[in-house]
Amino acid sequence: MSKRPLSRQQIEVARFMAEHPHIRNIDVSRQFNLSKNTLSNWLKREDFCAEIDRTTSALSRLADKMPQLMEMAIESGDAEAARLVLELNGMLSKRTEVTIYA
To answer: Is 37 exposed, middle or buried (0-12, 13-18, 19+ CB in 10 A)?
Structure first.
């Protein structure tokens, strides 16, 4: 009998934990409205921990390349690429602007 795949919430929590490696489990539980037991059980799952590790590794590799990506975006004059690099570094918030004409 195989385990069920990770739920969307489990993946979201795992990625959040990878992005915030020093956060306490109790704070993660509060952030996502989980019981301590639920998070504890998830942390015992090999696939949940693998998702945290995968995301941590991807973030690390991406962080190493950010200066090069920004330089390429500037040199090429690609504003969209520059915007994406800034967003990924948390230096630009993602927002959507909607204009309604009556």
So the answer is: exposed
| Share of the chain residues as helix, strand and coil, in percent rounded to the nearest 5 | 65, 0, 35
CB 73 within 8 A of CB 81: yes
pTM passes above 0.70? no
Q: Kindly report, residue by residue over 23-72, the tens digit of the pLDDT.
A: 999 999 999 999 999 999 999 999 999 999 998 888 787 777 778 877 88
Query: Residue 53 contacts by C-beta under 8 Å, 6 or more apart in sequence?
Result: 18
Angle ∠(7,10,12) on CA atoms, nearest 5: 110
Distance CA 21, CA 5 (A): 23
Angle ∠(17,21,23) on CA atoms, nearest 5: 80
